[in-house]
Amino acid sequence: MRGFTTLVWALPALVAGQKPQYPPAFPANPILPSSINYAPSVTPNVMDPTAPNAQVVCPGYIASSIEETTTGLTADLALAGPACSAYGNDIKDLTLSVQYQSKERLAVKIYPKHLAPSNQSLYILSPSLTPQPEVQYGSSKSASDLQFTWTNSPSFQFRVSRASSGDVIFDTYGHKLVFEDQFLELVTDMVPDYNIYGLPENLRGFRIPNNFTQTFWNAYNLDNDQELDVNSHSVHPVYLETRYGNGSSLSHGVYARNAHGQEWLMRDSSITYRTIGGSFDLYFLSGSKPADVISQYQTGIVNTPYLPAYWHLGFQQVRWGYQNWTNLQDVVDAYAAQNIQLEGVMSDLDYLKVNRDFTNNPGHYDIEPGKEFLERLHANGQHYMPILDPNIYVPDPTNFSDAYPTYDRGVELNAYIRDSNASYYIGVLWPGFSVSPDFITPQAHQFWTEQIIAYHENLAFDGFWLDVNDATSFCTGSCGQGRIEENPIHYPLAFPGDANTSVAVDYRFPEMFNVTNATEAASASSAMMSQSIMYPTPSATPTPTVGRTLATPGVRNLTYPPYAINNFLPGHSLQKQVISPDATHNDGPFNSTEYELHNLYGHTSGNATYNALKAVTPGKRPFFINRSTFSGSGNFSGHWGGDTNSKWGNMYFGISQALQFSIAGITYFGVETCGFNGNADMELCTRWMQLSAWFPLYRNHNNRNTIAQEAYRWATTAEATRRIMNFRYSLLPYSYTLFHRANVAGETVLRALAWEFPDDASLKAVETQFMSGPALLVTPVLAPLATSVQGVFPGVAEGTIWYDLYTLQKVNAAAGENKTLDAPLVHQPIHVRGGYIVPMQSAGNTTKTSRTSPWSLIVALDKNGQAKGELYLDDGISLAPNATKNVEFSFTNNTVHATVSGEYNDGLPLANITIAGISSHTHRVSVSLGGKACNSRGAKFDHSNGGVLSITGLQHATSGGAWSGDLTVELQ
User: Fold this and answer.
1) Which residues are 403's β-sheet partners?
2) Is the peptide bond between 40 and the residue preceding it cis, with omega within 30 degrees of 0?
3) Mean pLDDT over the full length of the chain
4) CA-CA distance, 356 to 359, in Å (whole number)?
5) Please, which residues have CB within 8 angstroms of residue 714's CB and are 6 or more apart in sequence?
6) Prior bond to 488 cis, omega within 30?
7) Are strands 105-112 and 146-151 parallel, antiparallel or unpaired?
8) Which H or E run includes 195?
9) Which of 57, 718, 844, 888 counts the highest number of beta carbons within 10 A?
C-alpha cells in the first residue's frame, strides 16, 4: 500500500503543483451492499427481433360521428377489428379532436373516449404540469397555414399539409394508429434524406441521423454521464424539420405533448413515435423558416424563456472538493490576482453536513465565517450559489444525535413520494437512505419554500443549482424500508478520502496528452496500471433477463411494461438508478404513479425551487439552473449539460447540445467547462474556456478526484481566458438584448448557421461554428494541437460582408469556401456580420463594474453601406422593472441614428463609434440628442486602419446619458 501511495502522489508532476483535492471522509458506515442495487435486465424492443410489429398485428381504428366547426373537427374512433394486445390493453373507443389553434399552429389530440376521474392522469397530461395551448381568438380553418385531411381506407389515417402548396409535413397514410394503455404508436412518412433537429437531450450531432432511435427516459449514469447517442437528463419531444429545394427552404415543427417514457425511431423513409402511456397530443407549427418555428413553439406552446438577471451572464467557478470557506476565498483571490473576471463561486456537496440539504459542514463551512465570506463577496459585486439536491435524508430513529428537523417537517406536511405499499419511498442518494418531495402537490411546495427561506435567513446565498433531480436513486426499489436504523449509510460510490476506498486518483487525460505531455502521460499510464492491478474492477454480478412481458387484461405492468424502451442504464430496466415506476404520489383521487410522472420530476422540482427562490428575494430574478428539464422548463430555469468528460469530443458535441436546447426554449444553457470527469490539460482547458465564453451559462466545474482546472492554473489558459472574457463582458449589452428578445418573442441567443441563412443547404449539418445572435460568428478550435481552424462565411454569394472582430478588416472569402483561419492557442476567431450595429461597454472585473463603463458602438456596414442594431436596458435584476428602455440603431447616409423608447436611463455617455467598411473620410461630426445640438468639439477621427473609421471623444456631447433621447451622429 505504501508503494501505491507514493505512486499516487507522484501525480502532481503531471501538471505542476496540482493535486486532486479530497474533502473530509464520509463517516465510516457500511457502503450499501451491491445486492440492494440488483435489478433484472430487459431486452429493449428495438433490439428484439421477436417483438411483434404493431403495424402488422393491430387493426387500427375507424372514424365516425364527425362534427366540423370553423376551428376544427371532432370524431369518434373505434377499433377496426379484434384487439391485438401487442404491448398492452387496447383502448376500444377514442376521441379525435382537431383544432386550428392559430394561423401557424394545428393541434391533433387522440385520447380515450371514456375516462373516469380516477384514471385521467394515466392518459391526460395536466396543464398544471406543463403548458397546454388552446384555440386563439379569431383562429379558423380558412385562415390557417395548415390543413388536416383524413381517410378511413382501410383504417383511420391522417395528414397535415401546408394549405398554400399542399406540401405534406406529417403523413400517417398507409400506417395504423395503435392505442393501448401501455403502448401508443404513430408512423409518419418522411421525404428522402430529411433534415430534423431537436429532440433534446442527448449528446450527438446537430442534425439527427436518419437511422437513429431517440429514447426519452430521464436518467443519470453514475459511471459515465456523457455517453453518446443515449437518453439523458431531459425530455423535450419537439423537432424542427427543414426541406431544401430550388435555392430556398421551408421549415416546420412537431411537438408531442407526452411525458411518458417514449422513443422516436428515425428511419430512412419514416419516423415512428412510440410511448408507453398517455395520449396523442400533437402540435404542428407551420414556420416557415427555422427561426419562425422556434418562436412559434416558445410563444404559442411552452412559454418563452425567462430573462436572466444581468449578473447571471458572468463567469462562475465551482469544484467538488472546495473544502471550506478559506478554500473558496483563495479561489476568488487567485482569479482577482490574475485579472480574470469572476462573477460568482459555487459550492458542490462539500458545504453540507454529510450531504444533507439545508445544513452546513461543521468545522469547514460554519455559518459565521460563511457570513463574513459572503459579505466580502457581495461587497465586490460577486455572488455565491450552492448546490441543492431534491432528496431528504431519513434520520435513524434510534439515534437521537441523528435528528434531522427538515425530514420531520416534511412528514408533518405529508410531502414525500410513497412506495406502492403506501409507506414512504426510501431510496439512496448522497446523504444515504433518503425520501423525495412530491413536487406535484402543494404541501411539497410549502415544505420546500419553508426550508429554502429558513436556510437563506442563516446564509444569504444568491441562488441554487438543482442536481440529481432526474428522479434518481442509487438503489432499486424502496430499499430503505426496514433499514433506516443503518443510516447514515455511504452512497454506493467510493472516492478518495473515503474509508477503505479502493478508488484513488482519476488518471484519465484528454486525447493527444501523450504528445503534448509525453513524460507526464507515461507516468499517469503507469500509475493507472498499478492502480488497476492493486484494485481490480470486480466482476459484474450476472443478472437474469426479464423476458418481454405480455399484456394482461385489466393489468398495467408498471415496472416491466410489455414494451421495453431502450433506456441506456445497465440492464435497460426502468427501475435502475431511479425512483421505481410503481412509486405513488399524493395527488388524490388520481394517486398518480412515477410511471407517468418520472420525466416530469426535474421539471416540477425545478419549478418549486424557482418559486421558493422568488419568495426568498421578492421582486428579484433568481439565479437557478436545473439538471433535469421538460418542455416548458425554460420559462423558469436554465440548464447545464451534465457531468461532461474532459475530452475533446465532449467539448465538440457541447455546441450541438446547446443548439438542441435553443430549439427547446432553454436559452440559458452551458456545459461543465474543461470537463467534470477526468483531467483537463492546458490545451483542452484553454480551448474550452474560449468556446464556453459564448455559452449563456459560463462555468468551470470538475470532480474532486481530478487535478485542479481553474482558468488561472496555466499561464497560457489564463491569458487566453482574459482575452476572450474581455470580449464576453464587453458584449454583455448585446447578449442581454438577445435574452430580452428571447423572453418577449421566442428568439434564440445561440444560433445555428442554418437558422440565420436558411436557404443555404450546405449549412444544414454545420456544428463546428455557430452564431451569437444575428451579428457574431464564432469559429472555435475543437481539436488538439491545432494552430488554425477552418470555417465557412455564409451569405457571401448574396453579398454578405464579414469583418474580423479584432481588426474589423473585411474577410476575403469565396462563396462556399471552407477558409483556413489563424488560431494560435490564445486566439479564437470571431467575426461580425455586415449590416449590424453592436452596442458595447468596456469590460470591468464584474458585470456590475462593466455596466458603469461609457458606451461604444461597432457599426459593421453591409454592401449598401447600411447597418442596424438594438439595445435593451433595465435595472438587470427586477422581475418587473419600474423602467425599461429600447434603443433602435441604424446607419444610413453617413449618419448613426438611435431611436429610443422607455424611461430607463443609466446616465452613461457614448464614448466611441467604430465603423467598419466605410469608404468616405470624415472631417467632423455633428451630434444631436433629444432634438438638441450638442457640442462635439472633442471628437477625434482615425482613418489609419484601412476601411475602418474610429470616432472617439464623444463623452462631452452625450454627458447627460447617450440614450436619454433620440440620438443622431452625422459624419461630414
Assistant:
1) none
2) no
3) 93
4) 6
5) 15, 682, 685, 686
6) yes
7) unpaired
8) strand 195-198
9) 718
- Return the C-alpha cell found at 348: 458542490
Q: Which three cell numbers stand for residue 225?
A: 454521464
Domains 54-302 and 754-971 share a fold: yes
Alpha helix (H) ranges present in 49-109? 54-57
- Burial category of 15 from C-beta neighbours within 10 Å (exposed 0-12, middle 13-18, buried 19 and up): buried
Strand-pairing partners, residue 899, are 888
Q: Which residue has the cell 435567513?
A: 457
Give the pLDDT confidence score for residue 633 in this predicted structure.
98
13 pLDDT higher than 60: no
Residue 2: predicted pLDDT:
26
Task: Find the helix or strand (DSSP H, E) in which 110 lies.
Answer: strand 105-112
What does the pLDDT average to over 89-101? 98
| Contact call for residues 627 and 233 (beta carbons, < 8 A) | yes
Whole-angstrom distance, CA of residue 558 vs CA of residue 580: 9
Cα–Cα distance measured from residue 126 to residue 637, given in angstroms and rounded to the nearest whole number: 20
For residue 649, give the H/E element and its range: helix 648-664
User: Model's pTM, two decimal places?
Assistant: 0.96
Helix (H) or strand (E) holding 803: strand 802-804
Assign 74 to helix, strand or coil: strand
Q: Are 347 and 386 in contact (CB under 8 A)?
A: yes
Amino acid at 188: T
CATH code 3.40.50.280 for 54-302: no
Q: Which is higher by pLDDT, 4 or 880?
A: 880
**Domain regions of the chain by residue span:** 54-302, 754-971
Interval 642-656 mean pLDDT: 96
Here the cell at position 946 is 484601412
In this predicted model, which residue has the larger pLDDT, 591 or 917?
A: 917
Which pLDDT score, from 0 to 100, does residue 541 have? Answer: 58
Handedness of CA 573, 574, 577, 579 (dihedral sign): negative
Asked whether the CA dihedral 120, 124, 130, 133 is positive or negative, the reply is negative
Specify whether domain 754-971 bears CATH 2.60.40.1180: yes
